[in-house]
Amino acid sequence: LKWKPVFLMAVLVWAVLALAALVGGVSMTDLEAHSYVFVLGGHHSGTSVLNLLLQQHEDISGLRNTGVPEDEGQHLQEIYDPAKKIGGMLHFGYHVNAHMDETSELISDPNRLALFSSWAPYWNTSRPMLLEKSPRHTTMSRFLQSMFTEERSYFVIVIRHPLATTRFRWSRSPVNTNKDCGRELIDHWLKLYETLAMDAPSLRHAYLVNMERFLSAEKPQAHVDSMFRFLGREPNIDIETTCESSHHRTRKNKRQERLAAHIQEQLSEVHVRPKSEMHANTLAVHANVSNSPLCAAPASLSAGSLDRSKRNVMAPAANIRHTSEDGPVISEPRRRLLMYHGERDHVVVNVGSHKSWIKSWLDYVDIGGATCTAVIHDYEERVNRFGYSLIDLARADPPTNELRKFVLEPAE
């Protein structure tokens, strides 16, 4: 009778697989017929623009019309905890359940099928490569690779300065920002990316995108082409760019005006030292912030301006609204991100404002005060390993840690 528990367990597994296949209309054969791309990175790091750019390709399908925030797969499944259940976007990395790898008890064929079944209805499964983007997955790369196998799993890692990615928070609370000089925000950013750096050597297919270098590149098209080659796809998509000012908007509605008034009221309570008292290095950075060389010319790079006749050029965009790094135009039903605008099927990449946060940061904090000095002392070396600096805010170099091997410079 010793064989009975084993037999019963086998029957149970078979029943779960059969039920999942019956309910979801998919099978393990369907799962194994595709390869998978996971776009990783912290919130507001640029994952959305990379997600939308990659799914323009005819061989790649991203999650669409899901009804959940940003069409992120983490919100569509019940296998693991989404970020909102373990602390939210600025704290989830600390949770005991945040980091998941190949040793997880959740890795099983029934769970593989259940996860695939929760995403499959929102993919075009006639395409060979399926794309998913969730910041939650930044601490789950090894788990996902084990769930979908090394051979079929590809990871596009997006990284951006910790203070740039968290501008949406510190710019709306100047008093608190000046009190801690972004300490909590920087600490959580490091928690996410240090976990990813620890996991990265175990990933078979990974590609690192430094968002500052991508947006300031003289030829951003080359970076996009390089990503498609990494994924084993013919680079046949032209990107369109714009150099819009980060301070220009076509309109402000009442909610935006109230927000601006609230922030101004908070700023009046913040003591900011005269710029002459700031660190000389930081002042130099502030004075010499430069954006993409594309923005030096009046004409922007567009699909129609490129001699790439064999490519799938996207149709002209209609009713393009101005956007800024401060966030979306609230009156619009479609979300506007700091680095793209247009429609999901026609992404226009904004290369003209990705460093505008630096001026705001230096206006909000006492950069030479005791609080910021302590933050720089505690975190500068760790941030440096990712190619960034809390002193030289415009610095965006390749990382010097385990992520360095995944930097693939585009071909000229």
Describe the protein's architecture and organization.
The protein is α/β, with parallel strands linked by helices and 412 residues long. It has 15 helices and eight strands. The strands form two sheets. Strands 2-3-1-4-5 form a five-stranded parallel beta sheet, sandwiched between helices. Helix 9 runs parallel beside helix 15. The longest helix is centred in the first third of the chain and has 21 residues. The chain is globular, with a radius of gyration of 23 Å. It starts with a helix and ends in a 28-residue tail after the last helix.
Low-confidence segments: 246-253, 266-290, 297-338
Determine the number of helices (DSSP H or I, runs of at least 4 residues).
15
Radius of gyration computed on alpha carbons:
23 Å
Number of separate strands: 8
Q: Order of SSEs, N→C?
A: HHEHEHEHEHHHHEHHEHHEEHH
Distance between the termini: 68 Å
Largest sheet: 5 strands, parallel
Strand content: 5-15%
Overall form: globular
Proportion of residues in helical segments:
25-40%
Strand order of the largest sheet: 2-3-1-4-5
Structural class: alpha/beta
Mean of pLDDT: 78
What is the compact description of this entry?
With 412 residues, the chain is of the alpha/beta class. The chain contains 15 helices and eight strands.
